[in-house]
Amino acid sequence: MTKVTGAGRAGRRCAALAAALLLAVAPSCEGGRSAAAAPAPEAARDAPALPAPTGALPVGLRTTQLSDTSRRDPWNPDRHRELTVSLWYPALPSRAPHASYVTARESELILRFHRVRGVPADLLSRTRVHARLAPPPLAAPATGLPLVLLSPGFALPRTSLTGLAEELASRGYAVAAVDHAYEAPAISHPDGRVTGCLACERRPEGARVASVRAADLRFLRERLLRSPGTAGLPRLDPSRVAVVGHSMGGAAAFEALRTDAGFAAAANLDGTVHTAGKNPVDRPFLLLGAGGHGSPGADATWGRTWRDLSGPRRWLSVRGAGHLSFTDYAPLLERTGAAGPEVTLGAADAQRITRELVVAYLDERLRQHGPRLDTAVRHAPEVVDHGR
User: Fold this and answer.
1) What is the CB-side half-sphere exposure of residue 274 using CA atoms within 13 A?
2) What three-state secondary structure class fits 82?
3) 8 Å CB contact between 107 and 73
4) Domain enclosing residue 263, as ranges
5) Residue 169 counted as domain residue
6) Share of the chain above pLDDT 90, in %
7) Is 367 a domain residue?
8) Which CATH number belongs to the domain containing residue 237 in this structure?
């Protein structure tokens, strides 16, 4: 099985990403630390901002921590499995302060983990977001809101998908992004602990990480559906729960859909699928990748995944996109000029396309709003449709 390592070609990809200010974790280099990065240009010192969500609804954000006492943590068996979760939701209009992207301590640890030099240690904590901190939720319809779980790449924080989360919440979704314990460089806990990436040191097989994460996602779904009010969320619809993941999170999304009938749909954003080729999956699944995922045979796991899908399926790739084009970090890569020669798609376009395609897919599958994804694809000339 594929190890989650940073050797060879993957290591070179990681080094290039680290030089871009942030987080070196392409699907084949997840878990490995990057080589030392060159100092970033002075322009990178300016505080970045996420693009504003385009939906009509204000967005609120709460953070919670859940403990699964039925499981010991595979990377730290002395503790039960703990999940730190960001919850975005449609909110009432509020003058509450804007939420933070990450804390200054988290920013320092993330940058140090990836050996990023020449930038302020608190750079990431100064990223501006649009959600307000814990305003009252907007009342949900009688059927409840659809729920989307987000799983980030290995060694990437849950916050790397904040832009997508805010967009979804502004359009009427409840969204929960999870930091899988000991799989990110800096996870803050209510008791003051800040844990690091123990799993990175263990270099586990990708299939094992995907399986652990699928269990996390199942536990998170069950807890939120059982008592959304205790987490500050409005009523949720248990029949409309999807999971979307980037990189290793995409592998986890596939494994969650494959093993748990409680998920109605899932999407993989440019992730190697470590558990493909086992058995058919009869619910909707979206493969959305960078340009390389449009080349036949470029990732054999996508071919196996495609053959596993007996239900509604879609395979799309985005010309000129790179691995991190589907995350919040695309603008930072662009600003430092370190995205790589293969990344020709502008960061603003990458973020817009990601949001439009994911929202259209979820609207179609969770809300039965017609062929929204077909429309989004037609309006994005950079997107290549490889089949359904």
Assistant:
1) 27
2) strand
3) no
4) 8-387
5) yes
6) 75
7) yes
8) 3.40.50.1820
